[in-house]
Amino acid sequence: MPGTNVCWCDSGKPADQCCEAIMSGRTPAPTAEALMRSRYSAFATANAAWLRDSWHPDTRPVDTSVDASVRWIGLKIAATSDGGADDETGTVEFIARCKRGGRAHRMHEISRFSRVNGRWVYVDGDVD
Ligand SMILES: [Zn+2]
After folding, report:
1. How many CA atoms lie within 13 A of 53 on its CB side?
2. Residues 96-122: pLDDT tens digits?
3. What is the CA(45)–ligand 1 centre distance, in A?
4. Rounded CA gap, 43 and 59, in Å?
5. Whose CB has fewer CB within 10 Å in the chain, the N or C terminal residue?
């Protein structure tokens, strides 16, 4: 069904009204959680350019390329704090699942976000 792809981030929304709109730069992420979801979708679609653009310039690695042998299969947001329309910083705790070489992995991270020129960006995170 063209045009009705459900978003990679498991939001249940069509991708073009969710992470695709954010990754393309068409829609700024309204919240830290929305930015985090778009970064998960960037991993799922090997979108290195969006990973770079959504990373804080002070913490961004030189190489943001994505390991295409990893298949991302699910995202669950465990908790959020701040990161809303009136906030300058926020955190998002999430569990992302992936498969690498046929084996399932689970990644649990608490990510920190802040705004640069009004736009949400990823700063860094603590991996469990
Ligand atoms: Zn999404």
Report:
1. 14
2. 999 999 999 999 999 999 999 999 999
3. 12
4. 18
5. N
Taking the CB of residue 91, how many other CB atoms lie within 10 A of it? 19
Q: Is 102 helix (H, G, I), strand (E, B) or coil?
A: coil
* Alpha-carbon dihedral 96, 109, 64, 9, rounded to 10 degrees: 30
| Residues 77, 94 contacting (CB under 8 angstroms) | yes
Contact 9, 37 (CB under 8 A): yes
What's the mean per-residue pLDDT of the chain?
95
Q: Domains (ranges, CATH) in the chain?
A: 15-127 (3.10.450.50)
From ligand 1's centre to the CA of 50, what distance in Å? 13
Report pLDDT digits (tens) over 9-62.
999 999 999 999 999 999 999 999 999 999 999 999 999 999 999 999 999 999
The per-type count for the chain, helices as H runs and strands as E runs, is 3, 4
